[in-house]
Specification:
The structure holds 2 protein chains of 2 kinds. Chain A is mainly β. In chain A, the strands form 2 sheets. In chain A, strands 2, 4, 5, 9, 10 and 11 form a 6-stranded mixed β-sheet that branches. Chain B has one domain: Sandwich (Immunoglobulin-like), CATH 2.60.40. Chain B is built from no helices and 11 strands. In chain B, the strands form 2 sheets. In chain B, strands 2, 4, 5, 6, 9, 10 and 11 form a 7-stranded mixed β-sheet that branches. Chain B has a 4-stranded antiparallel β-sheet with strand order 1-3-8-7, with no helix packed on it. Chain B is globular and about 35 Å long. In chain B, 35% of the residues are buried. The chains are: A mainly beta, B mainly beta. Chains A and B meet through strand 4, strand 5, strand 9 and strand 10 of A and strand 4, strand 5, strand 6 and strand 10 of B.
């Protein structure tokens, strides 16, 4: 099956800093989503982005499908951004998640 | 805004017992999914369901698991004889079409003792 690798596994930032999270995948995909898992365990949809670039407030994402990677940018980070960020990809009606990047934003 | 709901939020059961986890997908969605997340690990795909049939299932989804859409609104996951290793958060998701954005419910935390 398709392999999904996320980097870095852990990231500690000072409030106000910017960051880039990366997701590499091993095959062509029909679907790519970024999620934020909050401290209560809920998976919050951030982006549906099988290709191209999207922005939503302080967050933006870019997927380069031909090169099999996606990037999630967080600008001016806040403590509420803390949690685990997952990339998930789907090419056969069975979405596969990466291991996640655990982000800690310190005040 | 429409959302996926799941009940119960937390279920505790004894090893060997049957459990049914319930989900109400978003009303106009046609594709339904179950995932699980063992504590501290990544989210794992279990099964996808469309038109009253399983579309895909993972190696985790063995004969102990089954899914059903008993009526026009509910989507259930049944584990026939729970094991300790079934303890996890179970997420239901739905999407309008495939491939497309999947929306996840808040999860049911299953604890098998």
């Amino acid at each position: 099956g398709i392999q999904v690798e996320q980097s870095p596994p852990d990231l500690i930032l000072q409030e106000g800093a910017n960051s880039t999270l990366r997701c590499n995948f091993s095959d062509s995909v029909n679907n790519l989503q970024w999620f934020h898992q909050n401290p209560w365990g809920q998976l919050i949809n951030l982006f549906y982005i099988p290709s191209g670039t999207k922005q939503n407030g302080r967050l933006s994402a870019t997927t380069v499908a031909t090169e099999r990677y996606s990037l999630l940018y967080i600008s001016s980070s806040q403590t509420t951004d803390s949690g685990v960020y997952f990339c998930a990809v789907d090419n056969n009606n069975d979405m596969r998640f990466g291991a996640g990047t655990r982000l800690t934003v310190k005040p | 805004e429409p959302e996926v709901t799941q009940t119960p939020s937390h279920q505790v059961t004894q090893m060997g017992q049957e459990v049914i986890l319930r989900c109400v997908p978003i009303s106009n969605h046609l594709y339904f999914y179950w995932y699980r997340q063992i504590l501290g690990q990544k989210v794992e795909f279990l099964v996808s369901f469309y038109n009253n049939e399983i579309s895909e299932k993972s190696e985790i989804f063995d004969d102990q698991f089954s899914v059903e859409r008993p009526d026009g609104s509910n989507f259930t996951l049944k584990i026939r004889s729970t094991k300790l290793e079934d303890s996890a958060m179970y997420f239901c998701a739905s999407s309008e079409r495939d491939p497309y954005e999947q929306y996840f419910g808040p999860g049911t935390r299953l604890t098998v003792t």
